Amino acid sequence: MEPGSTCAVFGVGGVGLSVVMGCKAAGASRIIAIDINNEKLAKAKELGATDCINPQDFNKPVHKVLIEMTGYGVDYSFEVVSLIETMTAALASCQNNYRLSVMVGVPPAG
């Protein structure tokens, strides 16, 4: 990741919070934490997230919220929930054609 990058972290449990700290250490200019637990979002903010989103607060898909926030999508997305829905959203939130989405874990079988 280059300094000044825009990042989205889907899921801010233990691993997701580590990703937030890593993005901060790498010099990301914007770190957007996404989770349905507001307590976890508060912790993410303490550890370096610049923005926090609870998808339940919106009437549209979270990737559309991220694209509206950034104007074009994020440079890097990290998915640490291991659900197909969040994996799809993480991929859809990246800039088209030339950015990176990292999936940590494997979704449940089926």
UniProtKB/TrEMBL annotation:
Which Pfam families does this UniProt record tie to the protein? ADH_zinc_N
List the catalysed reactions: a primary alcohol + NAD(+) = an aldehyde + NADH + H(+)
Recorded GO cellular component terms are: cytosol
This protein's record includes keyword Transport: no
Query: Any keyword Methyltransferase?
Result: no
Coiled-coil residue windows = none
Which key words tag this protein in UniProt?
A: Cytoplasm, Metal-binding, NAD, Oxidoreductase, Zinc
Q: What is its EC number?
A: 1.1.1.1
InterPro entries (UniProt xref): ADH-like_C, NAD(P)-bd_dom_sf
Q: Which residues form the Alcohol dehydrogenase-like C-terminal domain?
A: 14-107
The protein's enzyme class: oxidoreductase
One Gene Ontology term of the molecular function aspect: zinc ion binding
Q: Which cofactor does it need?
A: Zn(2+)
Biological process according to GO? retinoic acid metabolic process; retinol metabolic process
Oligomeric and partner information: Homodimer.
The protein in question is named: alcohol dehydrogenase
This protein's species is Columba livia (Rock dove)
Tell me the organism's taxonomic lineage: Eukaryota, Metazoa, Chordata, Craniata, Vertebrata
